[in-house]
C-alpha cells in the first residue's frame, strides 16, 4: 500500500457541538401488509396491479402455480437506482443536463434502437420498467452480534470500530476497484489501527490466478461423493492453501445455482439438484475452510439459476433477469442450503446479480434484512457479487455490507456507488450512522471470529500477505494495474501451498466417479493385459478414442479462465475455475497403470470420424471412448455456448463418436466398449446407451488435476466406484418439465423467469409425474453389492407440536455512537496523491454534504419489521434443529470385495394438508432428508472396525426436516398426519421392508403442560382453526393473544 494512500484520521473525537444531528427516523411498530393475516395477499407478481409481464415468458406461466413472497416494495426509479445521493449539489447539477448532453443522449438511444431493430443479437421491445417489485420492505437492517457464538468477536470489533473515523469505516466497506490490488477483491485498510486490507479471492474450485495451488474437483464432483468427511477434508485443504497465500476471504462454496435448469452454466460449481445435499456439502465445506482461519463465502444469494441475462447490459438488456419465486419455494428449496451455511457459521454471503421478483438481490430488504439477517440469524457480512450493486443508499439500507470490487456500474470506472458517496450519505443524514457502524462491525467481527488478528499466522507487517498477484505471473509487476500508476514492486513470491493435497484431490475425484452401467462385470479390468487375452505372448489391444482422453498440446491452461472445451475436460469455465498446476489426462494414467509389455495402445485423440478411427477400432480388443459436455460463466462464451449449455447432449459430436466406435470395435462390433463422460451436469445418453456392446459407462464429472489417476483407480480396481448421481439423467430434455428450460431470448427490458415448478425440481418432478428416467437421482453402482436390513423408526418426543419453541432473546449488541461526525475530517487531506481510478472514501468539498431534497426512502422504510418467529439463532430458530424422530438400519456388504455404500433417507409427507390460509399444501412424493456413506470391508469384525462387513446407520430427523413453510404464519409448521420414511440406495431403489411410518404422536386438541408456546395454528382438511385452551376465556379468545400471521 503506497504511503500516499494511508488515511489521514482526525486527531480527536468530535464534540457533540461539532457533530451534526441525525434527522430522526421514526419507526412505527405497526403491522405491515406482510404480517397481518387479513391482508396477506401473496399475489402472483405477474397478476398484481402494476406488475410487469414478460411477453415471451407469459405464455408458459401458470397463474395458480406462482405465489410471490414479494408484494409491496417499490423499485427505485432509474435515477435513484444508479445514484442515490441526491443531496449533493454536484449530483443536482448532473440531474440538470445541458442541451448538448440531451442531444447526444437522444442520438445515442436512437442509434441503439436502430441497431436492435436492424438485426442486433436481441430484438428488444421497449416497455415500461416495472413500477413495483413484489418484495415487502423489511427495515431496519438487523444488528449483528446477537448470538452467543459471535459475542467475543463483536466485543473486540466494537473496541476497534469505536476508534475509527467516518472515512476509515467507509474504507472497510468499499473495495478499492478492479485490479487495484493483488486480489480480485481488496478492501481499504485502516493502517492507523493496524487493520489490513482484506484479500478476497475466487473461488469454489481453488485459488483463481494463484500459482502453486491445487486445482480441486468441482462442486458437482464433490456432491457425487455423498461423503461428509470428503467434503470437509477438501474444504480444510482449500482453506489451508488460501491462508498460505494470504487470502482472507475465499469466494466459495457455491450453492446457488441449485440446479433448477439442467443446462445452467454454473450448476457445476454447486453440489447437486437437491437442497439437502447442497446444504450438507456446503456446511461441511465451510467448516473445513473456516477451521483453517479463512472466511468462507456462501454464494450466490439467491435464485441465481441461469447465465443468460444475469446482469444488465451483459446481454443487451438494461436489467438482469428476474427470478420470480414464491415464498414457500424460496424457503424450502433455494434458501435451505444458505440456512445450513449460516448454521455452520459462515462469515460471508455473496448476493447475486439477478433480480428476485423484480427487485435486485443486492438491494432486496426482505431477502437480506428479513430472511438472511433476521430469520437465519446471519452474523457475518453480505458482499455484492462483482458489480452486482445497483444503488447506493437503497442497497445500504437493504442490508448490503460490502461492495465489490468497489467500482460503480462498470468495470474499472473508479466511480463507486459507495466510497465518497457513502461518506456523503452519512454526513447528510440519509444513511444512519448505526447502519454504517453495523456494516463495519460485521466485517471486522468476521475478521476476529476467524482469528485473522493473530500476527503469528497472518504476518501482515512483513509485506508478504498476500504473497501473489492475480494480474501477472512475473515476480515483479504493477501494484495497481487497473490504473495508469507506474509503481512496481515484488508481487509474486511463488509460495507453494499444495503440500500433499493431491491425495485429497485424488480421493474426491475418485469418489465422485459414478458407474451407471457395468454389464457382464466388464469392470474392473485387469492391469495385466495377458490375463485378459489369456495368453502369455499376445498383448491386449486397447483403443483410446476421443479428444477428451488426451492432454491439450498447448497446456491445461491454454484458454483464459478455462473458457474452451479442448481435450480432456476437468473443470468448467469462469471465475470459479483455477490455474492447473498440472493435469493428468486419462490416456496418460491408463498407460501408466497397465503393466508394461502386456498391452498395446491405439490412440485417436480426435472426435472426427475417419478411416484411421475405423482401422484402430477394428484392431482393438477393448475400446474406451471419452466424451464430454462443458459450460461456464456467462461473461465469456465458447463457440455458441454462452455460459448455459444449448442442450443436454454430449458436445463435439460425442454421440456419433460412441456409435461409430461401438460399430467398429473388435472387428465389426464384437469388442466391448467402455464410455467415460466428463460433464458439468445432466447429460442425455440415449443415442448409444442401449447398444449391446457398450458394456460400461462411467460419469467422471469434473475431476480437477488428478483426473486421469482417479479414473485409472476405478477402471483397474484399486478403488470400487462409490459415487452416486447428484441429479437425474433423463431420457429426453422435456422430461425435466416445462419450466426447466433456460430463458435464452427475451423481448423485454426486464427478462422474467417464473419458477412455477415450485418444489418439483429434478427427481421430485419425475416422481410426481411418474416419469421414468434413464438413471435416477442418487443412483450409482459398485463392484460389490449391499443390503439394508433391521429397519426401525422411533419417536424422540412425547408429543407433536406444530410450531418451534418461542424465539430466544438476542445477546446484547455493541453500543454505537449515533452522532454524525464533523464533515471536516472527511475531506481529502492537503497534498494527497490520488491513484487514478482507485476508490477512496474522502469527499472533495463541504458543499457535497449540504442539505438538499429529502431522500425518497423506500416504501415501508419507516415501519419497523417484526422479528421472525422462525429466527433466533444461526440457521434459524434453534428448535428447528431439535431431533424429533430416529431411523435406524444396518447396511451389509454382500459381495466379495470392499466398497462404500451410500444409504439415503427420503421422507413422504402426509396428504390432505391445508395451511393457515386454508389452502391445500402439496408435497413431492418423496424428499431427501438424510444420507450416510459407509465403507464396508469383507470381514466379520465388530462394527467399529473399518473393514467390518456390517455396520449400523442412524438418521435423526429434526423439526425442520418434518416441517413445511406456512406462508400465512411465516413459520415452519409440522402438519398432522402420518409421515412415511423410505431408506434405500437411490431415490427409486427401495426394498419394502425398509419403508415404514414414523411413530410420531398426533396433535392434542388442547394444551395440558402449561408451556408458553401456544400460537393459533391450522390443521385438517378444511383449514379449521384450533386454539390452545388458555387462549380462550368464557368462550371468547383472550385479548392480546397472538394470532396466526402476526409477528412476535
UniProtKB/TrEMBL annotation:
InterPro entries: Cellulose_deg_GH3, Fn3-like, GH, Glyco_hydro_3_C, Glyco_hydro_3_C_sf, Glyco_hydro_3_N, Glyco_hydro_3_N_sf, Ig-like_fold. Residues 901-987 form the Fibronectin type III-like domain. The keyword Ubl conjugation does not apply. It catalyses: Hydrolysis of terminal, non-reducing beta-D-glucosyl residues with release of beta-D-glucose. Gene3D superfamilies: Glycoside hydrolase family 3 C-terminal domain (3.40.50.1700), Glycoside hydrolase, family 3, N-terminal domain (3.20.20.300), Immunoglobulins (2.60.40.10). Its EC number is 3.2.1.21. Residues 1-40, 803-824 are annotated as: Disordered. It is an enzyme of class 3 (hydrolase). One of its GO terms (biological process) is glucan catabolic process. It holds the Pfam family Glyco_hydro_3_C. The chain crosses the membrane at residues 101-122. One of its GO terms (molecular function) is beta-glucosidase activity. It comes from the Eukaryota. It is found in: Cell membrane. Residues 15-28 have a biased composition (Basic and acidic residues). Residues 803-813 have a biased composition (Pro residues). Pathway: Glycan metabolism; cellulose degradation. It is a single-pass type II membrane protein. Its main location: membrane. One of its GO terms (cellular component) is plasma membrane. Keywords: Carbohydrate metabolism, Cell membrane, Glycoprotein, Glycosidase, Hydrolase, Membrane, Polysaccharide degradation, Signal-anchor, Transmembrane, Transmembrane helix. Residues 29-39 have a biased composition (Polar residues). Belongs to the glycosyl hydrolase 3 family. Beta-glucosidases are one of a number of cellulolytic enzymes involved in the degradation of cellulosic biomass. Catalyzes the last step releasing glucose from the inhibitory cellobiose. This is Probable beta-glucosidase E. It comes from Elsinoe australis.
Amino acid at each position: 500500500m503506497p504511503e500516499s494512500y494511508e488515511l489521514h484520521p482526525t486527531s480527536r473525537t468530535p464534540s457533540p457541538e461539532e457533530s451534526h444531528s441525525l434527522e430522526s427516523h421514526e419507526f412505527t411498530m405497526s403491522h405491515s401488509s406482510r404480517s397481518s393475516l387479513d391482508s396477506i395477499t401473496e399475489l402472483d407478481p405477474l397478476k398484481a396491479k402494476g406488475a410487469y409481464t414478460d411477453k415471451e415468458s407469459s405464455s408458459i406461466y401458470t397463474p395458480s402455480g406462482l405465489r410471490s413472497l414479494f408484494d409491496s416494495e417499490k423499485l427505485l426509479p432509474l435515477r435513484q437506482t444508479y445514484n442515490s445521493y441526491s443531496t449533493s449539489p454536484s449530483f443536482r447539477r448532473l440531474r440538470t443536463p445541458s442541451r448538448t448532453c440531451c442531444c447526444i443522449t437522444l442520438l445515442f438511444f436512437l442509434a441503439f434502437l436502430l441497431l436492435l431493430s436492424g438485426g442486433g443479437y436481441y430484438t428488444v421491445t421497449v416497455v415500461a420498467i416495472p413500477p413495483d417489485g413484489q418484495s415487502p420492505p423489511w427495515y431496519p437492517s438487523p444488528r449483528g452480534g446477537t448470538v452467543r457464538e459471535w459475542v467475543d468477536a463483536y466485543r473486540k470489533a466494537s473496541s476497534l470500530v469505536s476508534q475509527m473515523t467516518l472515512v476509515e469505516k467507509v474504507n472497510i466497506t468499499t473495495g478499492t476497484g478492479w485490479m487495484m490490488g493483488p486480489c480480485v477483491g481488496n478492501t481499504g485498510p485502516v493502517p492507523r489501527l493496524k487493520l489490513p486490507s482484506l484479500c478476497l479471492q475466487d473461488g469454489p474450485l481453488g485459488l483463481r490466478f494463484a500459482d502453486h495451488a491445487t486445482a480441486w474437483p468441482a462442486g458437482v464432483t464433490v456432491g457425487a461423493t455423498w461423503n461428509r468427511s470428503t467434503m470437509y477434508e477438501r474444504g480444510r485443504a482449500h482453506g489451508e492453501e488460501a491462508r498460505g497465500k494470504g487470502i482472507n476471504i475465499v469466494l466459495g462454496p457455491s450453492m446457488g445455482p441449485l440446479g433448477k435448469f439442467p443446462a445452467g452454466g454454473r450448476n457445476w460449481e454447486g453440489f447437486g439438484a437437491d437442497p439437502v445435499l447442497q446444504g450438507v456439502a456446503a456446511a461441511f465445506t465451510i467448516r473445513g475452510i473456516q477451521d483453517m482461519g479463512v472466511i468462507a463465502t456462501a454464494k450466490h444469494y439467491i435464485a441465481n439459476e441461469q447465465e443468460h441475462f444475469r446482469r444488465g447490459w451483459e446481454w443487451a438488456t438494461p436489467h438482469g433477469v428476474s427470478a420470480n419465486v414464491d415464498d414457500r419455494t424460496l424457503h424450502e428449496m433455494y434458501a435451505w442450503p444458505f440456512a445450513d451455511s449460516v448454521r455452520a457459521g459462515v462469515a460471508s454471503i455473496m448476493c447475486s446479480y439477478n433480480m428476485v421478483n423484480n427487485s435486485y438481490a443486492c438491494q432486496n430488504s426482505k431477502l437480506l434484512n428479513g430472511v438472511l439477517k433476521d430469520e437465519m440469524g446471519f452474523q457475518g457480512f453480505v458482499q455484492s457479487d462483482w458489480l452486482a450493486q445497483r444503488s447506493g443508499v437503497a442497497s445500504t439500507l437493504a442490508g448490503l455490507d460490502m461492495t465489490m470490487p468497489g467500482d460503480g456500474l462498470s468495470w474499472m470506472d473508479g466511480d463507486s456507488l459507495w466510497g465518497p458517496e457513502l461518506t456523503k450519505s452519512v454526513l447528510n443524514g440519509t444513511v444512519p450512522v448505526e447502519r454504517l457502524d453495523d456494516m463495519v462491525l460485521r466485517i471486522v467481527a468476521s475478521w476476529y471470529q476467524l482469528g485473522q488478528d493473530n500476527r503469528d499466522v497472518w504476518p501482515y507487517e512483513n509485506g508478504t500477505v498476500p504473497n501473489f498477484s492475480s494480474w501477472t505471473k512475473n515476480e515483479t509487476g504493477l501494484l495497481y494495474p487497473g490504473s495508469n500508476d507506474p509503481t512496481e514492486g515484488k508481487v509474486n513470491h511463488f509460495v507453494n501451498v499444495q503440500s500433499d493435497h493431491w491425495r485429497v484431490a485424488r480421493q474426491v475425484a475418485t469418489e465422485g466417479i459414478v458407474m451407471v452401467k457395468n454389464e457382464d462385470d466388464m469392470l474392473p479390468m485387469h492391469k495385466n493385459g495377458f490375463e485378459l487375452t489369456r495368453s502369455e505372448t499376445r498383448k491386449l489391444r486397447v483403443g483410446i478414442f476421443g479428444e477428451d482422453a488426451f492432454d491439450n498440446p498447448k497446456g491445461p491452461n491454454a484458454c483464459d479462465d478455462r473458457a474452451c472445451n479442448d481435450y480432456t475436460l476437468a473443470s468448467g469455465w469462469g471465475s470459479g475455475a483455477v490455474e492447473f498446476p498440472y493435469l493428468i489426462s486419462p490416456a496418460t494414467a491408463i498407460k501408466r497403470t497397465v503393466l508394461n509389455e502386456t498391452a498395446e495402445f491405439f490412440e485417436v485423440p480426435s472426435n472426427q470420424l475417419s478411416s484411421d478411427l475405423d482401422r484402430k477400432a477394428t484392431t482393438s480388443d477393448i475400446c474406451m471412448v471419452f466424451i464430454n459436455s462443458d459450460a461456464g460463466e456467462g461473461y465469456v462464451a465458447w463457440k455458441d455456448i454462452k455460459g448455459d449449455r444449448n442442450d443436454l447432449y454430449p458436445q463435439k459430436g460425442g454421440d456419433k463418436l460412441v456409435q461409430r466406435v461401438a460399430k467398429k470395435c473388435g472387428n465389426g462390433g464384437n469388442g466391448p466398449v467402455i464410455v467415460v463422460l466428463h460433464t458439468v451436469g445432466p447429460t442425455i445418453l440415449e443415442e448409444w446407451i442401449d447398444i449391446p456392446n457398450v458394456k460400461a459407462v462411467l460419469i467422471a464429472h469434473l475431476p480437477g488435476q488428478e483426473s486421469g489417476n482417479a479414473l485409472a483407480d476405478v477402471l483397474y480396481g484399486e478403488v470400487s466406484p462409490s459415487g452416486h448421481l447428484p441429479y437425474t439423467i433423463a431420457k429426453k430434455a422435456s422430461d425435466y418439465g416445462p419450466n426447466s428450460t433456460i430463458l435464452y431470448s427475451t423481448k423485454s427490458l426486464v427478462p422474467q423467469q417464473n419458477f412455477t415448478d415450485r418444489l418439483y425440481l429434478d427427481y421430485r418432478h419425475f416422481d410426481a409425474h411418474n416419469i421414468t428416467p434413464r438413471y435416477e437421482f442418487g443412483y450409482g453402482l459398485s463392484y460389490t453389492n449391499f443390503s439394508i436390513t433391521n429397519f426401525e423408526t422411533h419417536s424422540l418426543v412425547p408429543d407433536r407440536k406444530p410450531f418451534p419453541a418461542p424465539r430466544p432473546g438476542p445477546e446484547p449488541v455493541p453500543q454505537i455512537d449515533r452522532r454524525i461526525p464533523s464533515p471536516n475530517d472527511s475531506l481529502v487531506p492537503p497534498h494527497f496523491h490520488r491513484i487514478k481510478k482507485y476508490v477512496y472514501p474522502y469527499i472533495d468539498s463541504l458543499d457535497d454534504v449540504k442539505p438538499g431534497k429529502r431522500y425518497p426512502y423506500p416504501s415501508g422504510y419507516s415501519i419497523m419489521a417484526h422479528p421472525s418467529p422462525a429466527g433466533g439463532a444461526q440457521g434459524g430458530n434453534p428448535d428447528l434443529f431439535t431431533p424429533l424422530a430416529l431411523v435406524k438400519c444396518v447396511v451389509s456388504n454382500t459381495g466379495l470385495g470392499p466398497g462404500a455404500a451410500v444409504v439415503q433417507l427420503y421422507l413422504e409427507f402426509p396428504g390432505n394438508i391445508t395451511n393457515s390460509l386454508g389452502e391445500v399444501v402439496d408435497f413431492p412424493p418423496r424428499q431427501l432428508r438424510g444420507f450416510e456413506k459407509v465403507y464396508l470391508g469383507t470381514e466379520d469384525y465388530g462394527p467399529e472396525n473399518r473393514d467390518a462387513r456390517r455396520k449400523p446407520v442412524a438418521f435423526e430427523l429434526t423439526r425442520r426436516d418434518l416441517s413445511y413453510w406456512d406462508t400465512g404464519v411465516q413459520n415452519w409448521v409440522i402438519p398432522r398426519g402420518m409421515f412415511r420414511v423410505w431408506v434405500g440406495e437411490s431415490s427409486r431403489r427401495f426394498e419394502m421392508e425398509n419403508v415404514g411410518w414414523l411413530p410420531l404422536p398426533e396433535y392434542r386438541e388442547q394444551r395440558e403442560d402449561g408451556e408458553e408456546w401456544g400460537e393459533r395454528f391450522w390443521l385438517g382438511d378444511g383449514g379449521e382453526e384450533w386454539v390452545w385452551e388458555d387462549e380462550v376465556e368464557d368462550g371468547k379468545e383472550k385479548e392480546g393473544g397472538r394470532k396466526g400471521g402476526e409477528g412476535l
